[in-house]
Amino acid sequence: MKIVTSAEMREIDRVTSERFGIASLTLMEKAGSAVAEFALSFCPAAKTFSVVCGKGNNGGDGFVAARKLHEAGREVRLLLLADPAELRGDAATKFARLPTKSAAPPFAVFKGWGEPKSAQAVFACDVLIDAILGSGFRPPVSGAYAEAIAKINSASAPVIAVDIPSGADVDVMGEQTGAVARADAIVTFTAPRPAHIFGNLSSGPTVIAPIGSPDEAIQSSLNLNVITPREIAPLIVPRPRDSNKGMYGHVLVVGGSLGKTGAAAMAGFSALRAGAGLATVAAPQSVLWVIAGYHPELMTEPLEETAAGTIASHALKGFEQIAEQKTLLAIGPGISRHPETSEFVREVVRQSKTSIVLDADGVNAFEGRAGELNGRGRTLVLTPHPGEMARLTGLSTPAIQRDRINVARSFAREHELILVLKGDRTVVARPDGEVWVNATGNPGMATGGTGDILTGIVAGMLAQNPKREFEAVLAAVYLHGLAGDIARERLGEHSLVATDLVKTLPEAFSRVRSEAAGKWVRIGN
To answer: Engineering a disulfide at 304: which of 120, 315, 413, 515 sits with its beta carbon 3.0 to 4.6 angstroms away?
Structure first.
């Protein structure tokens, strides 16, 4: 799904109305209706809803939501932070359609702070809906709007923001400045803006509701997208009845060393759990029995080793035969930074025509030698964390973190590969410079081994989808984060360990299928 700027969103609305004939009043009606529908599903037991509205189109969406909530049998209190005479255009039209005071259930309209008890009445509710300021706003906020934001932030009721929490700048990718309303959920429309993805503006979900703009009207100059279930669901459809393991690829994990056998085993088993037909782990001969003992489903192959229990450079002699007829190589989990092992890794990457996923110390083998990495003529996927990316590029880790999107985009272009830069909002860049951002995952996944699980899932998805390699990587990244989110639901962040993701991956597959069929796109919790 494309990420657009606020200016592009205005143009999308204009084109939708002028070129495709969908009136702006209709767009507002659908937007407000979506807010009301979500509010009722998000807080089904709530009886009293308060809607705080500004005088612009965001307030107009709030007027519609208030009317729809009332029609659904809920008591509604609406606070308009302006004189009704100041309303213009569509917002004025929607305000005129509000129920009268004699309506049942009760529907009350408060105008500004003129009535002494208005604030107390409005903010003493089950659910607050913030419809003060939308995408067109630029900070700072002041006056009655600032006062309303302060009262929202001190209220105890859950808050649902219409389009964006009031006071936020939708085009900002980092931390907001000035007064910003808190939000427990956000309902926005058509396409997300940067702050929806990068701003951490809500403690709960951000829902993107379609309101009628056709795909042709949604244009973006950012070359930036967010991964959603709709993009990846086609890769996890039911299998044919006459399936066999040979149809779903054979992953060869190359890794493991003395003291680091678990990484290779986790990657291999994760590839199987992601759907690969077969998985083999090639590792130093002395530790092979340990890896074989983790999972009976894994096959193993011995490699010549160094005195330190790592893969030796002369293991190349027999490796070509081991790698023969494998669909994909996953190199790096637990492989170590031994100089001979790093030499082995570089030679395999240089010589192999097979698709490769390179992770961990497989990436570190190219420290100071990034020029040797090129994916031309094959699929090459790198999955570094910021520290590994820093070693690979020669930049500092803070420099990587300050400019994650451009660093990933530039590296993917220069080296003609797919780059998965891990972290909060993992970035996936393809060789043509297009970038996708992942919004699944949580801090509980900051624990040893989750990267090895990701390597296995990426390998497993690629093995099954060799002709749809980029979509397979997007699917793997999304599913990995979602499996982590499901594990957090069950175990909390502090107790989560890497293998929990393997256990929750089947439910992640199920949720993707279910959410892809839904009417809204949901980002976050």
So the answer is: 315
Q: Which two tokens stand for residue 191?
A: 């396409």
Do the beta carbons of residue 155 and residue 123 sit within 8 Å?
A: yes
DSSP for residue 88:
-
Residues of the chain with pLDDT under 50: none
Neighbour count for residue 409 (Cβ, 10 Å): 22
Average pLDDT of the chain is 95
Q: For residues 21 and 31, give the distance between their C-alpha atoms in angstroms, rounded to a whole number.
A: 17
Contact 97, 63 (CB under 8 A): yes
CA-nearest of 72, 78, 79 to 44 is: 72
Query: Cα angle vertex 309, ends 308, 313, to 5°?
Result: 85
Q: Among candidates 410, 378, 376, which has minimal Cα distance to 394?
A: 410
Residue 518 makes CB contacts below 8 A (sequence gap 6+) with none
Distances from the Cα of 258 to the Cαs of 331, 510, 520, in angstroms?
16, 37, 48
Give the C-alpha separation, 446 to 246, whole Å.
35
SS3 readout for 464-519: HCCCCHHHHHHHHHHHHHHHHHHHHHHHCCCCCCHHHHHHHHHHHHHHHHHHHCCC
Quote the Cα angle for 109-111-115, to 5°. 100
Q: Which residues contact 115 (CB under 8 A, 6 or more apart)?
A: none
DSSP 8-state secondary structure symbol assigned to residue 222? S
Q: Could you identify the residue written with the tokens 């192959």?
A: 301
- Are 351 and 443 in contact by the 8 Å Cβ rule? The answer is no
Q: How far apart are CA 411 and CA 341, in angstroms?
A: 24
Rg (CA), the chain: 26
pLDDT per residue over 11-50, tens digit each? 999 999 999 999 999 999 999 999 999 999 999 999 999 9
Tell me the two tokens of residue 300. Answer: 């193993």
Residue 524's pLDDT is 81
| Residue-by-residue DSSP string for 347-366 | HHHHH--SEEEE-THHHHTT
Q: DSSP secondary-structure letter at 66?
A: H
Q: What is the pLDDT of residues 227-244, one digit of tens each?
A: 999 999 999 999 999 999
Q: Whole-prediction pTM value?
A: 0.95
3-state class percentages of the chain: helix first, strand second, coil last, to nearest 5: 45, 15, 40
Both tokens assigned to 238:
């039911």
What's the rounded Cα separation, in Å, for the pair 149 and 179?
7
Amino acid at 507: E
